[in-house]
Design a protein that fits this description.
Blueprint: H1 3-27, E1 32-35, H2 42-53, E2 58-61, H3 65-77, E3 82-86, H4 90-93, H5 96-105, E4 110-115, E5 141-145, H6 151-166, E6 187-192, H7 200-212, E7 229-234, H8 242-251, E8 256-258, H9 274-279, H10 283-289, E9 290-296, H11 303-309, E10 316-319, H12 346-350, H13 368-383, H14 389-401, E11 408-411, H15 415-423, E12 432-434, H16 444-455, E13 459-464, H17 465-470, E14 486-492, H18 509-517, H19 524-530, E15 534-538, H20 541-547, E16 555-561
Parallel strand pairs: 1-2, 1-3, 3-4, 4-6, 5-6, 7-8, 7-9, 9-10, 11-12, 11-13, 13-14, 14-16, 15-16
Helix pairs in contact: 1-2, 1-6, 3-5, 14-15
Length: 562
């Protein structure tokens, strides 16, 4: 079976599975659905949107899983049992307070979380954690449904969940002292979906758009004449490797593809715009000339880099504590593994490939490293030529690096960290922080506030508008509490634009707008001022550059409107 046929079969299976799951629950009387956008739960989102359009259910879309959970709780308390739907990762954990309340109040709340298949858990991928059993004894029943489930098995799992939810069957996990008879209460269905997570027509349209927008060099390199060599890819948790390998990597001329929060981004060989370059201009060169990949930490930001570390035809070595060599190419399954838990000998990891001597020609750069640098800078130039997120990010990064007094930088998850990853130069501000364990957008303002209190030096936080609205409570503080020097920069691009760079971005406009974009009603500056912050709006690169010259003192917010 070719790749296209396999993909179509998987999509058909996903659509059938998600649609059947939703329809079974609707038939059981769950008419109110509270959906929080994500990528892994997208098959459920598409199914819900279709049924809502035909008035078979009441659909409510919210960006904050904690709030959505309590909304579902309120609906259930009002006599309309509700289903809460969310994606994988921290999104699931945000439902715990509402689940606890439902458990002790005896309310039939149903939580439906999306997940990766069991075989892909624990691989270090974004937003992958252990969701089965996450609510412990606070749920009456929990089930973990895997792809490939039969119609009969799905029916059985749903029936058991609904019966436990209503308290008409024995409860394996009673949440109260009433252990001798069933009680109504919350249940948890964890449903795993395999890619593709969007309909085939959407994926095809996305591929066509990506191809049309690819950055192509005016003088494309001949892959057979290009130099050959090694790449070092650095992600989260990679800083422990820096001191031991820094000099050797520089001397060997190894290009460094490093996420902006890592020490490796300060390395002289760090390449800007690497993901765009690897995904477009250098794709053929990489395919023919890449001989080895060294991975430090856990890179998770971009698909082109994920594809590099999962290639089967080249050695992929992980760098951690010295002592043991692990070559991922020998792993038949070859699923990406959290490199922070692995290790190899530093001497071997840093040794250049025996075939790394460049093949010189008049048309190619002088070295493997220079080729990457040129391609990366070309990509950045294309990304930053107009007023937008990338040019704003570069201005913020450069201003923070050159501030008269040290300023820490905290970067929000989702699109923000990816944009900074593309444009950040290979020198860093005092410290760069970001939440990359599960890469959730929840609690970003609170995290930066806590870091600023601990560090006792100015902190600049950059996040998107959806992340801002997700953490409004963190704007508030007690009258007697210590206030840090914290500046929040909200990049207001009108919703969850990260989905525009995924397959879902080419879904029908009404579907994309409601189920993924989720632009919020609210005055960013007004909300900040109401909580006691100084807040202003900027509408141009010149205004942003001027604003960044002001010292980071007290609580201030700049809304950058794109």
């Amino acid at each position: 079976m070719d790749n296209t046929s396999q993909r179509d079969n998987q999509d058909a299976s996903n659509r059938q599975y998600a649609g059947d799951l939703v329809r079974l629950l609707v038939k059981q009387g769950f008419s109110h659905w509270f959906y929080c956008p994500g990528s892994r739960d997208a098959p459920l989102g598409y199914a819900l949107n279709r049924l809502a359009a035909s008035h078979r259910l009441n659909l409510h879309v919210r960006i904050d899983e904690r709030d959505a959970a309590f909304m579902a709780l309120g609906s259930t308390r009002a006599g309309h049992p509700a289903v809460l739907v969310m994606t994988s990762g921290t999104a699931v954990g945000n439902a715990l307070p509402a689940v606890m309340e439902a458990a002790h109040a005896g309310l039939p709340l149903l939580v439906l979380s999306a997940d990766r298949p069991a075989a892909l858990r624990g691989t270090g991928a974004n937003q992958t954690t252990w969701q089965p059993g996450i609510f412990g004894d606070f749920v009456r029943f929990a089930t973990d449904i895997q792809p490939g489930v039969t119609a009969a098995e799905l029916q059985q799992a749903v029936s058991a969940a609904v019966a436990s939810c209503r308290g008409v069957s024995p409860s394996p996990h009673p949440a109260t002292d009433e252990k001798h008879f069933p009680l109504p209460g919350p249940v948890h269905i964890n449903a795993s979906f395999i890619e593709p997570l969007a309909p085939p027509e959407t994926i095809e349209a996305f591929a066509a758009r990506a191809s049309a927008s690819a950055i192509v060099s005016e003088d494309p390199l001949d892959p057979h004449q290009a130099p050959r060599g090694t790449l070092l890819i650095a992600g989260n948790l990679s800083d422990a490797t820096y001191a031991d390998l820094c000099e050797t990597v520089e001397n060997a001329g190894i290009p460094v593809l490093a996420e902006p929060q890592t020490a490796w981004r300060r390395h002289p060989n760090a390449v800007r715009g690497y993901a765009k370059a690897a995904g477009t201009t250098l794709s053929a060169v990489v395919e023919h000339n890449l001989e080895r990949v060294i991975v430090a930490g856990r890179p998770t930001l971009t698909r082109p880099i994920t594809r590099l570390v999962t290639r089967r035809d080249i050695p992929v070595e992980t760098v951690g504590a010295p002592g043991t060599t692990v070559n991922l190419a020998d792993n038949i399954a070859r699923q990406w593994t959290d490199a922070s838990t692995l290790a190899c000998e530093l001497a071997k990891a840093a040794k250049p490939s025996p075939h790394s001597t460049p093949h010189q020609s008049a048309e190619t750069p002088e070295s493997w490293l220079e080729m990457w640098r040129v391609a990366g800078e070309d990509a950045v130039a294309a990304l930053t030529q107009d007023w937008g997120f990338h040019s704003a990010a570069q201005t913020i990064w450069d201003s923070t690096m050159t501030a008269p007094e040290p300023v820490d930088l905290y970067l929000g998850a989702s699109l923000t960290i990816r944009v900074f990853d593309a444009v950040a130069r290979n020198s860093a501000p005092n410290r760069v922080f970001t939440n990359r364990g599960l890469a959730g957008i929840d609690g970003t303002i609170a995290s930066a506030w806590g870091a600023a209190l601990a560090r006792r030096q100015p902190m600049r936080l950059v996040l998107g508008d959806v992340s801002f609205f997700h953490d409004l409570g963190a704007l508030c503080h007690g009258r007697t509490e210590e206030v840090p020097n914290l500046q929040v920069i909200v990049i207001n691009n009108g919703g969850g634009r990260i989905f525009g760079g995924l397959e879902h971005g080419v879904a029908p406009a009404d579907t994309f707008t409601r189920m993924f974009l989720t632009a919020q009603v609210g005055d960013v500056c007004g909300l900040a001022r109401a909580a006691g912050w100084q807040a202003e709006r900027v509408d141009s690169l010149a205004e942003l550059a001027s604003a960044l010259t002001q010292p980071v003192k007290g609580l201030s917010l700049w809304e950058v409107v794109l």
